[in-house]
User: Fold NAD-dependent epimerase/dehydratase family protein from Streptomyces andamanensis.
Amino acid sequence: MRILVLGHTGYLGRHVSGHLRELPRARVLGAGRSPAAGVDIDLSRHTPDRVAEAVSAAAPDAVVNCAGATGGDPVTLAEVNARGPAVLAAAVRAAAPAARLVHLGSAAEYGPGRPGRRTTESAATRPLGPYGATKLAGTVALTSAGLDAVVLRVGNPVGPGAPATGLPGRVTALLRAAGQGTGTVLPLGDLSAYRDFVDVRDVARAVALALTAPGPLPPVLNIGGGEAVPVRTLVRKLADAAGFRGRIEEDAAGSSRSARVSWQCSDITAAARALGWRPVHPLDASVAALWAAGAPARPGPEGERVP
Assistant:
């Protein structure tokens, strides 16, 4: 099986590519806009015809899109997260219409969840910011393209190599810089929100299962830990892994997103039914692997943000 992976140099893309290479008889072809990409594809800039030419030359049996903006202004987010999937869908439809397409979406597409409830794929999508809105636009472009495509709506990924652009990686970087002194103060924003954390290695396994599952799949599947965890708990676990003996100070006014999206928790029943997938890495193992992996990775041009 020839698998074309866009965004293979980013956080999620590196784990996905590594896992796919372990599949029997799989050949993984990396694509993206970075110099490290084997296949030159820039979904935010190239025309559908140019992308189609690159896809045709790669002759993939399957395509995985891990590319996504890590942040920035609304124009950048729209170019990468909304235009990108639309261009990819048009290119695959023209050059490899029989290929299965797996796209990494985001739980941010749902917007705020209802406290105490898990969000199913049929829930209303009410993203509050440009990131979630542009990711949702990309999902719509792919699911309406008439392809053998599935969008995996990923929760908050955590695990080895988490970039400093997301909360787990950022807190890890701060803890490494702070040291272990008892008089050290670690200033952070509001940590009262609940998030659905999922190990990046479990995300990679979900992609592999989505590529190899027989028959058509549901257009959208949630990939998360399946439970809401206080952000404060994640930070405390990271501090314990670091041996941090200082004080963590929260600024309740420091994160407007935490106040607006106080609860996120995905219902992962559909993924279990369609793919036979469930997360196998508990949060403690994810945190331990993140800390043991060393300094957080710098996000590449194909990196995906943590919502």
